[in-house]
Design goal:
This protein has about 270 residues and is mainly α. It contains 9 helices and 4 strands. The longest helix has about 60 residues.
């Protein structure tokens, strides 16, 4: 409830613009109080609430900004690290070249990559950060802190990716089989043959040549000479591929031709290659 005093409306508990609250409490300004008087009253009565609310707002804003900034650095560093790991991993698992000079260079690069992985996977990231950031300053290179953070995360993630996705103790024959599983090549190993054939006749493929080749292989799989069955199946698959490419006017990969010719010559009497 409220009462009117000389045309001015006051809240209940206020008489003539003055509070009826116990002595010592803030008084309610009356209608004639100036703007600054109202401001002074509000600050006096609610100032601490304003300060607490402002402080909490700033805390939330700063925390959100800091987390967003840190997340951004982490995402950029991880993406860059993935690229570093992918490049180093491909280099580590690349097949050996027939060129002697390239083979020597490959070994040197692999040795450098091995040291890089060992160092950055064998030491804590905080140690790497201190050494790189302050070591660079000692050498006269002053890095921005954001750039330094991204750089450190990138090289650490790159070492992790290279080690986990492309381990140096992986069987080289597996990587070779993966490399040649779509074209084939002359002198394929057993693993390479099986990988090529498994990709060609895998169950989800239903195009006519695949169905025909799958049926051919399954019909002969019980024969004693498994190598002969595998080679004849591969020859048939190469014939299908070459025929399809010729009919569609597409180029034929030279390794596919070489793989077919190698198996054809191998089947001739007296040829033990």
């Amino acid at each position: 409830m409220s009462r009117r005093v000389q045309g001015t409306q006051f809240p209940a508990g206020v008489r003539g613009g003055e509070s009826t609250y116990p002595k010592g409490e803030n008084k309610m300004p009356n209608a004639s109080t100036s703007f600054f008087g109202w401001v002074a009253f509000l600050l006096e009565k609610y100032g601490m609430l304003f300060l607490r609310g402002t402080g909490m707002t700033l805390l939330i804003a700063l925390t959100g900004t800091a987390l967003g900034f840190a997340l951004g650095i982490a995402l950029i560093g991880t993406a860059a690290g993935f690229l570093i790991g992918l490049i180093t991993g491909v280099i580590r698992t690349a097949p050996r070249s027939k060129n002697a000079v390239v083979r020597v260079l490959h070994k040197i690069v692999n040795a450098i990559i091995a040291v890089y992985i060992e160092v950055f996977r064998g030491t804590p990231m905080i140690v790497q950060a201190v050494v790189i950031y302050y070591g660079a300053q000692y050498a006269g290179v002053y890095m921005d802190t954001t750039f330094a953070a991204i750089f450190i995360i990138s090289i650490n993630t790159g070492a992790y990716m290279a080690e986990e996705l492309f381990p140096d103790d992986a069987d080289e024959t597996v990587f070779s089989a993966i490399r040649w599983h779509t074209t084939g090549k002359a002198g394929m190993t057993l693993t390479e043959k099986l990988m090529y054939l498994a990709d060609f006749i895998e169950p989800t493929r239903t195009f006519p040549d695949c169905v025909r080749l799958r049926g051919y292989f399954y019909s002969r799989i019980g024969e004693n000479d498994k190598n002969a069955v595998l080679d004849s199946t591969l020859i048939l698959s190469f014939d299908m591929t070459v025929t399809e490419l010729i009919s569609s006017g597409q180029p034929i990969h030279p390794d596919t031709v070489a793989a077919r010719n190698y198996l054809i010559l191998k089947q001739k009497p007296g040829n033990k290659s």
